[in-house]
Design the sequence.
């Protein structure tokens, strides 16, 4: 049975689509944790997408390729397509960076979107913390952190703490605490 599709501006989305973030300092293991959680979530029957914020410029294209030349010539968007995947490269040029709610509108319908980055936005997040980083916890200052995945016990933490290697427990938290997309977008607009 297909899930009902609802019009969300110009885009359709799964009305049950939910979002949760993973926040932490650089080197804390956010990407590693996401790559371990995705197969576990898929095994539970979830369709999962991810959104990664880059604090610096990045390029998916290669100089000299036709798609690169199209962008350099001034195309606003370039779609690269093959039998296995497609990518849409959108050049912002002089436009401001898109915020998280605008980016979320671009997703195809899935059950869960895992967001890496956007740690200052108002949506539920699991903090990833490693003692070796020598960095303080984010959770005392971020009311949207709903739990902490850490490599050691944190008796001072006011949020629930789960072992960073307990992927099943982490997936339980991600699924339980994820927020419906529309509610998350509304909360971020209010913040």
Sequence:
């Amino acid at each position: 049975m297909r899930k009902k599709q609802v019009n969300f501006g110009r885009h359709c989305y799964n009305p049950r689509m939910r979002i949760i973030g993973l926040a932490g300092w650089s080197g804390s293991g956010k990407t590693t944790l996401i790559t371990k959680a995705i197969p576990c979530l898929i095994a539970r029957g979830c369709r999962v997408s991810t959104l990664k914020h880059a604090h610096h410029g990045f390029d998916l294209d290669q100089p000299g390729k036709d798609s690169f030349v199209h962008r350099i010539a001034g195309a606003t968007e370039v779609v690269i397509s093959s039998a296995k995947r497609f990518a849409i490269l959108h050049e912002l040029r002089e436009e401001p960076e898109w915020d998280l709610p605008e980016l979320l509108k671009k997703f195809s319908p899935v059950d869960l979107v895992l967001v890496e980055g956007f740690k200052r936005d108002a949506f539920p997040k699991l903090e990833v913390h490693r003692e070796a980083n020598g960095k303080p916890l984010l959770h005392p200052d971020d009311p949207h952190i709903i739990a902490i995945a850490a490599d050691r016990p944190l008796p001072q933490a006011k949020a629930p703490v789960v072992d960073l290697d307990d992927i099943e427990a982490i997936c339980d938290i991600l699924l339980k605490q994820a927020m419906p997309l529309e509610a998350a977008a509304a909360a971020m607009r209010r913040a």
